[in-house]
Amino acid sequence: MTSAPEGAGRDLLGIYLNDHLAGATAGVELAHRMARSHSGPGAGSTMQRLAADIARDLSALRDIMAGLGVPARAYKMCAGWIGEKAGRLKLNGRLRSRSPLSNLEELEMLRLGVEGKAAGWRTLRVLADSDPRLDAARLEVLMSRARDQADLLEELRVRAADEILAVSR
């Protein structure tokens, strides 16, 4: 195993956290858009609460980065924002309206994002054992919230798949 140059670990952590920041930015955009498209007392309020939780997680990531002295790279956040917008341009069998598959695919994308976020929290939790700037208890809470979000998204995804794909049987 070769040793890394002085400061390389800090640089790599900065890149890693900024990559998660880009993904979190895209996730917040997607969650808010989904909350707007699901109006009503059932799924709408659930998606609004979920979007608010995901936005709080983005704030938590920014706070953690600040505590570690890792600057947020605006170009990475812009890339996440643009990536989410570009994801809307996929062929969905409809030119002017949302496809019934849109909800299912968006739930799957958001679930993947939450799983990635959870992995990031777990990585930071391991680092917290040797870095006093990281709050292990806070990371445990963030990991638990990510698990709850993933479980909720899976319930919504299964329900959407059943509703959407049952029509094609």
Oligomer: single chain
Helices, by number, come to 5
Q: Which overall shape is indicated by the principal axes computed on the Cα atoms? A: elongated
Round the mean pLDDT to the nearest integer and report it.
84
Report the CATH topology name: Ferritin
- End-to-end Cα distance, whole Å, is 55 Å
Which CATH architecture would you pick? Up-down Bundle
Q: What string, H for helix and E for strand, traces the elements in order? A: HHHHH
The number of strands is 0
Please give the radius of gyration in angstroms.
18 Å
The CATH C-level name is Mainly Alpha
Strand content: under 5%
Total domain modules: 1
Question: Describe the biggest sheet?
Answer: none
The residue ranges in which pLDDT falls below 50 over 5 or more consecutive positions are none
Portion of residues in helices?
A: over 70%
The helix/strand class is mainly alpha
What are the SSEs and their pairings?
Blueprint: H1 8-37, H2 43-67, H3 74-87, H4 100-128, H5 136-166
Helix pairs in contact: 1-2, 1-3, 1-4, 2-5, 4-5
Characterization of the model:
With 169 residues, the chain is an all-alpha fold. The protein has one domain (10-166): Up-down Bundle (Ferritin). Helices cover 76% and strands 0% of the residues. It has five helices and no strands. The protein has helices at 8-37, 43-67, 74-87, 100-128, 136-166. The radius of gyration is 18 Å and the shape is elongated.
